[in-house]
Specification:
The chain has 808 residues and is of the alpha+beta class. It has 13 helices and 38 strands.
């Protein structure tokens, strides 16, 4: 229902203007009250949602600042720990330097004569007494071991075709694979099989001669070889041997049609459900595929097979290592087989039948139509069975003329026993009238998903044998070196005996090789050489009382039973003339560093250079009447070793206490700091060694070992520990530098994140904040407009009031 009041056009216009002005004032006042010109998506959808996204990202990045701040404190805690560890190591260095400077070793003086014998036990001498007495100078001798054979040494040499030989060998097993004119290659040389004049097939001897001839023709450009037919254990093989024992065995390549094919058995690991046997060996299936394959490989040699396993598909193929048709036998995994039907076989030998005869098959009577031989009789029976709808659907029938057997095959394949019966009553069958005995065979269900076997084809194949070597070990001065020597020349037979030049060159090579192997084993006091008689000698370079021993595979064969020799150290003469001075010179020369001797007004003064007490026995007259006494050890150095160990214990404690908020970088913990809201930018901080391996920082990993008092006996030992501490300090400084670099990265990223947050929030504000000056001016203008609109409305309403004047 509309209004009954009619307003003039001017009044309506002024009312509408007032309404618009009021609406605009409300919006302006809201902007001034909130400070935003965009307060909802209705104000400006694009700016509102853009600003919201920027503010959200700024909030996410603000949350990351807490993680960065915490991470910085973790790094600072680790740095505090490294600083403390460094000071602790420096204190340990100071303790060792103090020990090195201390020379408060204890002394005691003794009367001696030229016949006196002094026994020293303890201190740096340990539990084994050292006896000191004046002796005459002797020359001493060297340890020397030489080959025991009466002839010159030329390495491992064989002169018989049945034996191994000296060079690397390739043994060809022909299995009569080659016919006249067939080809294959040996060391890249084409060989054509030739059956010779007799033309009675290619024999091994003919093939060996052909190979030798072809290789000799190419001797100018290829390795020389010796070829012979094997005997004894190598019967049926052709042996191709390298004349140079350092050369590789000849490569032989057969044509595909002549190459040996070995039987295989393949299956998938999924088919393994319990204990199985392969090649007669029980295989431990284990808990995993890898366990099973490892067990197969461990039993492969005894089982006579090789293993190829695919870890992706878990398919496993076993190959018979022997040439022949057999595939590796596997018990416990069924072999894949097609379904087989059950059969019943009757022998019809002498059977003739007749047109009036009748047989009954599974209760069905069949009239025979043919009279004659057993073959006609058998064919007639097959025809009648096949023609019968019921029997023809149940059986296939066949008759074998050669064996006179009738076979009924059940057309339903699968496991089960055939039950076919034939009543021959009244029919002459040749075996027995009535119902002759039948042979029944069991049917077989199909086996799928088990093992698959392939039949091998025995043809030609090769076996490679490494060159023979004389091998033994040389031990000297607490170190051992493994020695391997090849022969002067290989080649089966005497045709390749080395001449004088070959021998000389070979000996130079052997001496160089053996000496190099000795050095690799850390033995520098021994060398190899050849004597004038051509025998190999292992000789100590200097005369000293050290044992030279040879052991190992060929030790006794080469050097006989005397494979150990101990030299005698030379004894130098003394320059002193007085008895006490002689002992002083002798002790300081031979035992310097363990004890120090000096002349104490005609007495022999001994200074114990150890932290442990030294037991001294002096037999003045040399008649075994020792008088025992003790020289105390250096207690200052012994106490300093205890201080060192206490400081060492603090290394681990300081490292364990350098944590912040549960994270300890010095203990090997990993600190992960995320730099952006998506998690794609981060840093992982962990303590690492110089090789980049993660490890904690403690005494053990820094290479700082605990001490016992004896470790401080000598300045050299102390210097060794000081070197370890120096290395530990270097490693700590390197780790501190790495943490410092990490801290710089995190602080830089923290500053960057703060600036990014400010940029994001400022950008969002630019999209939504209102200009208060502009909005205030707008409000003032709107208020003025409102007042003017009100005045205009008043003036417009005066026209309506003029009508009232007419009614008065």
């Amino acid at each position: 229902m509309g209004s009954d009041v009619s307003l003039s056009k001017a009044v309506r216009a002024n009312l509408l203007s007032l309404q618009n002005t009021a609406s605009m004032m409300d919006k302006t006042q809201q902007r001034l009250a909130t400070g935003n010109k965009v307060n909802s998506a209705l104000d400006n959808p694009s700016n509102f949602f853009t600003a919201s996204a920027l503010n959200s990202r700024a909030a996410d990045m603000s949350n990351l600042l807490d993680s960065m701040a915490s991470g910085i404190k973790v790094i600072e805690a680790a740095n505090n720990g490294i600083t403390a560890l460094t000071k602790n190591l420096e204190s340990m260095q100071s303790t060792l330097r103090q020990a090195r400077q201390d020379k408060s070793f204890q002394t005691k003086s003794f009367d001696v004569t030229d016949a006196s014998v002094i026994s020293l036990v303890g201190g740096q001498f340990g539990d084994v007494p050292s006896e000191i007495k004046l002796t005459n100078a002797v020359a001493g001798d060297k340890s020397l071991l030489t080959t025991a054979s009466a002839t010159e040494y030329l390495g491992t040499v064989s002169t018989t075709a049945a034996a191994s030989g000296a060079g690397a060998r390739t043994l060809i097993t022909t299995n009569t694979a080659f016919a006249d004119g067939e080809t294959f290659t040996v060391a890249g040389v084409t060989i054509t099989a030739d059956e010779g004049v007799a033309a009675s097939g290619v024999t091994d001897a003919e093939l060996a001669a052909t190979i030798q001839s072809a290789l000799d023709l190419n001797a100018g450009t290829t390795q020389k070889y010796s070829v012979a037919v094997g005997t004894g254990a190598n019967v049926g093989k052709i042996i191709i041997e390298t004349v140079d024992p350092t050369a590789e065995a000849a490569e032989v390549v057969f044509q595909a049609a002549d190459s040996d094919v070995k039987g295989t058995t393949s299956f998938n690991y999924s088919a393994v459900s319990g204990a199985i046997q392969v090649g007669g060996q029980t295989i431990n299936t284990g808990a995993t595929y890898d366990d099973f394959v490892a067990s197969l490989q461990a039993n492969a040699t005894a089982g006579g097979y090789s293993v190829v396993a695919d870890s992706v598909t878990q398919n496993i193929t076993l190959t018979n290592v022997a040439s022949g048709a057999s595939a590796p036998s596997v018990t416990g995994i069924p072999v894949n087989q097609a379904a087989q039907a059950a059969t019943t076989t009757f022998n019809l030998t002498g059977g003739t039948g007749g047109a009036a005869d009748t047989i009954t098959v599974d209760g069905i009577s069949l009239s025979l139509a043919v009279t004659g031989t057993e073959d006609l009789f058998g064919a007639d029976v097959v025809a009648k069975i096949t023609a019968d709808p019921t029997l023809g659907a149940k059986y296939s029938a066949a008759y074998d003329n050669a064996t006179n057997t009738l076979t009924l095959t059940d057309l339903t394949t699968g496991a089960g026993r055939s039950t076919a019966t034939i009543d021959f009553t009244g029919v002459t069958t040749g075996t027995a009238p009535g119902a002759p005995a039948a042979t029944f065979t069991q049917g077989q269900n199909a086996v799928v998903g088990g093992a698959t076997q392939t039949v091998g084809i025995p043809r030609a194949y090769t076996t490679e044998v490494a060159a023979e070597k004389d091998e033994f070990t040389v031990s000297y001065d607490g170190k051992t070196a493994n020695i391997s020597i090849s022969a002067a020349k290989g080649g089966i037979g005497a045709g390749y005996a080395p001449n004088a030049l070959d021998k000389a060159e070979w000996r130079e090579e052997v001496v160089a090789a053996v000496n190099s192997q000795l050095e690799q084993g850390g033995i520098t006091g021994v060398e190899a050489k050849f004597g004038d008689d051509g025998k190999l000698q292992i000789v100590a370079k200097t005369a000293e009382a050290k044992t030279l021993a040879i052991a190992g595979t060929d030790a006794v064969a080469l050097f006989g039973t005397g494979t150990v020799d101990t030299g005698t150290a030379p004894v130098s003469g003394l320059n002193a003339t007085k008895t006490v001075d002689k002992f002083v010179e002798l002790i300081n020369r031979d035992f310097g560093g363990k004890v120090r001797a000096s002349n104490d007004n005609g007495k022999l003064r001994l200074e114990n250079l150890s932290t442990q007490e030294l037991d001294v026995g002096v037999d003045i007259s040399g008649n075994d009447a020792f008088v025992a006494s003790k020289i105390e050890g250096n207690t200052v150095r012994a106490n300093l070793s205890k201080q060192f160990n206490e400081l060492r214990d603090q290394l681990d404690k300081l490292s364990d206490d350098s944590s912040f908020n549960g994270i300890n970088l010095l203990r090997g913990d990993k600190l992960k700091i995320t730099f952006n809201e998506s998690g794609t930018s981060s840093i992982d901080i962990q303590a690492k060694d110089k090789n980049g391996n993660v490890r904690g920082i403690n005494a053990s990993n820094l290479g700082v070992d605990s001490l016992i008092a004896e470790d401080l006996d000598t300045d050299a030992d102390i210097d060794g520990f000081l070197a370890k501490l120096s290395s530990a300090l270097t490693e700590l400084r390197s780790q501190a530098s790495a943490f410092g670099s990490n801290l710089s990265s995190v602080e830089n990223r923290q500053s960057f994140t703060k600036n990014m947050i400010n940029t994001l929030e400022t950008g969002a504000a630019n999209l939504t904040l209102a200009d208060t000056n502009e909005e205030a001016a707008n409000l003032l203008a709107l208020q003025t407009r409102q007042q003017l609109s009100s005045s205009a409305l008043s003036m417009a309403s005066q026209q309506d009031q003029a009508v009232l004047q007419l009614l008065r």
